[in-house]
Design goal:
Elements (H helix, E strand, L loop, with lengths): L1 H19 L2 H4 L18 H15 L8 H4 L10 E2 L5 E2 L11 H13 L3 H10 L5 H9 L1 H10 L3
Antiparallel strand pairs: 1-2
Helix pairs in contact: 3-5, 3-8, 5-6, 6-7, 6-8
Length: about 160
Amino acid sequence: MMKALTIFGPLVVALAVAQAQTPADTDANAPSAAAPASAAAPVPKADVRKAASHIRRAWESRSLCWDTVRCAAYFSSFGTALTFKDGTLVPLAHEQRLSLSGHDCIQHARAALHAGDRAMAVQWVMASHLDDPLTRNWLADHPDAVLEGLRRFGD
């Protein structure tokens, strides 16, 4: 058993490194993960309005989420990764909403946005709509609109 680990251990590491360096990463036309958000295409106004409407609805919700089946679900179980218009792809974080209201989720989202964590901001807005999978999925599919809606929220 130990001999197998000695032989296959370095092979697994080499495969992981090789997989991380795919041809798409070296392509000059591939978007950079560090590309600035300003390089992204403009977000449609209708999407921003829809996102802001979902944010406002969650902001007004003060009831705490205690249902352990829904509220204790980790963001990583939402089943999708976020792809921003600037080309960055961010996996879902391992956080949960248990004992928080929709209002609390939006406060967490705004704090994450102010800290520069775009993905976490979107995921908190998604978490505010745990009871509505269609809305939550729409938010996941439109992360740039969610961020723009958060930026404009309260203006």
